[in-house]
Amino acid sequence: MTAPPPRANPFLLGQEAAEATLVEALAAGRLHHGWLLTGPPGVGKATLAYRFARRLLAGPGAGLGAEPGPTLALPDTHPTFRRVAAGGHADLLTVEREWDAKRRRLRGEIVVDDVRRIAAFLHLTPAEAGWRVVVLDGAEDLNRNAANALLKVLEEPPARAVLLLVCNAAGRLLPTIRSRTRRLPLVALEEATLTALLARYVPELDDAARLRLAGLAEGSIGRALQLAAGDAVTVADLVGQVLDTPPSGLRLHEIADAVTREEETFSTFMELLRGAITASVRAAARGRADPDQTRLLGTRPLAAWIDLWQGLTQIQDETEGAHLDRRQAVLSGLTLLADR
Q1: Is-contact 117 95, C-beta < 8 A?
Q2: What percent of the chain clears pLDDT 90, i.e. is strictly above it?
Q3: If you average pLDDT over residues 223-241, what whole number do you get?
């Protein structure tokens, strides 16, 4: 079993406080026209946005009672749930980065034409339940013109319309957009929540593997699932060996072969390698580095570790973005690491 996409996911764990805020606003009849759902990637922001959208679109006359219950959940057998999951509800619009067929990858930003669709959609008369709902997933990807167009929508919101902005990096939004939306922060997930979700979505993992993935995932079930697909437990052990081995002892070609047999493993290796460097630098800055981290950071100046992290990031981004040779990318990254 794999996790369903957010629009089709009936499960939400670990975000009870954020969900309760929406339940209370709905029950009080004082819904803000714009909500900014913030927090780390992969913690349930989009899942909550669609959960709220489904509850609004189901309406009070859908056999759910006039008031929302303790959660916003709809059963996955409910007609509104099914139509939202299938992308077929007339009163719901989703906007996100679109696929660039020519470059065979997601477009790098959300453009002004996407936001113009939002404005046109929200000014239409609701077709069914009395609400028009927009989920803008990845609001940090708005370019300047798109952000200014969105601001105009937020300044003059139509009645019975709700705009849900899902955002991983609220600091990249215009301050005026932040000020015209009600911010709803979502938190990193607890280890117990991550292991419970992993048990549901990746039941073939044993308890030890789930605990290890939960420790690597930094509170994100999205990251945990990506790591599971990339055999992260094995790769994490390999990253540890790479960082603990003197440069002269690194078997570059053997490591490159091991982490490029599967496409997902390359991304996992690069992310865990950069993550280990990040964790060591942060721990040192806070005076909390353990002996292994202290020994690692002692091999080069702190600024050089930051340069290394940036170099590894560039190698991964260019390799994945331009479909370059992954094995050569690993060799380049390990060469940077060995140059100490």
Answers
A1: yes
A2: 63
A3: 88
- Cross-strand pairs, 95: 136
Cα separation, 147 vs 180, in Å, equals 13
- DSSP codes joined into one string, 308-327: HHHHHHHHHHHHHHHT--HH
Structural domain includes residue 208: no
CATH code for the domain in which residue 180 is found: 3.40.50.300
CA-closest candidate to residue 285, choices 307, 303, 272: 303
> Domain residues for 238?
230-338
- Same domain for 34 and 179: yes
pTM of the full structure? 0.84
Asked whether residue 64 falls in the same domain as residue 175, the answer is yes
Residue 49 has which token pair? Answer: 């946005």
Q: Which amino acid is at 150?
A: L
**For residue 64, which of 20, 10, 72 has the smallest C-alpha distance?**
72
Q: Tokens for 284?
A: 């040192």
Of 337, 189, 319, 329, give the one whose Cα is nearest residue 256. Answer: 329
